[in-house]
Amino acid sequence: MTQELITTLVKITLWLVVLLTTVPVMVWVERRASAFIQDRRGPNRVGPLGLVQPLADALKFIFKEDITPTAADRPLYLLAPLLAVLPALTTFALIPFGPDVVIDGRTVPLIVADVETGVLLLLALASLGVYSLVMAGYSSNNKYSLFGGIRASSQMISYELALTLAVLAALIPVGSFRLDEVVLYQQGTWLGFLPRWNVFPQFIGFMVFLIAAFAETNRVPFDLPEADSELVAGYHTEYSSMKFALFFMGEYMSMATLSALAATLYFGGWHLPGVRFSDTWYWALAQGFGILLMKVALFLLFFVWVRWSFPRFRFDQLMRLGWKVLLPVGIFNLVLVAAMTLAGWL
User: Fold this and answer.
1) Could you give the dihedral angle defined by the CA atoms of residues 171, 172, 175 and 180, in that order, rounded to the nearest 10 degrees?
2) Is 225 in contact with 148 (CB distance < 8 Å)?
3) Banded model confidence at residue 104, pLDDT cuts 50, 70, 90
4) Quick check: 212 and 163 in contact, CB under 8 A?
5) Does 328 score more than 80 pLDDT?
6) Got the DSSP string for 302-321?
């Protein structure tokens, strides 16, 4: 019992370290990549190549004055930033990050929460993020924040439907809600040379998932809930100091979570063709975790590239895309994958 508790705490600590490290790293990458895309220097004063700039930003948030509007609904106003971080901190517990390893004669799955309904629980926890945006928009007693909260609720509910359809389609050939079994299903090759990843037979589903993931994380071109040119800063207009920092952290953590889910569902997760995993548990852990982090990093870079390359949609265009394009395409993809599975092609 003690060994199982220690193992679980180690796995949780590993994920927390990665998640909390992702935020400052992505802050630097976001600024540096945008600078290269726009042909300018970017951060280059605080530390070599501006690498210490995220630390300076963190210190600024810590020492900045924390203001609460007098007319705000204080309990909801204080709860909203916590709810922004909570889904990202919990959903990573359901992402497998390596093969089962043997430690002192015990088989240990490299996943924090090894439950039968893994994907369903992950989607349920991820959907809690919309409550933080709605609470922030309502409780701030600011018309721009309220507009942002209303936009966030309609946008995230709309695109969660398409996202869920894409996820369910990826699960149909596997016949299980467990993400570790999804990874095992994608081992091997198609035609002897192509990785047996779901992205190849289910490319339509992957595109639906990818577009919906941008909308779920409120990233450009779907950043309507915080559109600065229209709503000042939207739902977090009235937030400052560490409360604003929690929203900031929640966005990047959610990006990392959905990137890990995309890598697990469509790109083989912690598995890579041709890589033989070590029999030693710590090397197997390092290999699996390293492969997964590499795939997540590529997705995060794609998030950054899209932000600085595409303009924002109008709100009516965003809703039309969600209901009239992504939802029908998601249903079509679900039926198509089911038919291919019954035919034995998957």
Assistant:
1) -20
2) yes
3) confident
4) yes
5) yes
6) HHHHHHTTSPPPPHHHHHHI
Neighbours of 300 (CB within 10 A): 21
pLDDT band at residue 1 using 50, 70 and 90 as cut-offs: low
Is the pTM here over 0.90, yes or no?
Answer: yes
pLDDT of 226 above 90: no
Number of helices and strands (H, E) in the chain?
13, 4
The structure tokens listed for 325 are 């394009």
State the distance between the two ends of the chain, measured CA to CA, in whole angstroms.
40
Cα separation, 156 vs 136, in Å, equals 15
pLDDT at 261: 95
Q: Tell me the two tokens of residue 255.
A: 């990006």
C-alpha to C-alpha distance for 50 and 266, rounded to whole angstroms = 35
Question: What pLDDT shows up at residue 26?
Answer: 93
Neighbours of 7 (CB within 10 A): 16
Structure confidence at residue 287 (pLDDT): 93
Q: Would the CA dihedral through 231, 234, 237, 242 be positive or negative? A: negative
* Residue indicated by tokens 């990458």: 29
DSSP string, 104-133: TTEEE-S-SS--TTHHHHHHHHHTTHHHHH
DSSP state of 186: T
The encoded tokens of residue 6 equal 């220690």
- For range 55-63, the mean pLDDT: 89
Give per-residue pLDDT as tens, 105-143. 888 888 998 888 889 899 888 888 888 888 989 898 888
**Number of neighbours of residue 168 by Cβ within 10 angstroms:** 19
- Whole-number pLDDT of residue 313: 87
In sequence order, what DSSP letters do the residues of 222-289 get, joined into one string? S-GGG-HHHHTTGGGTT--HHHHHHHHHHHHHHHHHHHHHHHHHHS-TT--TTPPPPSSHHHHHHHHH
Instruction: Work out the mean pLDDT of the chain and round it to a whole number.
Output: 90
The dihedrals phi and psi of 51, each to the nearest 5 degrees, come to -70, -20
Beta strands 106-108 and 189-190 are unpaired
Q: What are phi and psi of 108, to 5 degrees?
A: -115, 115
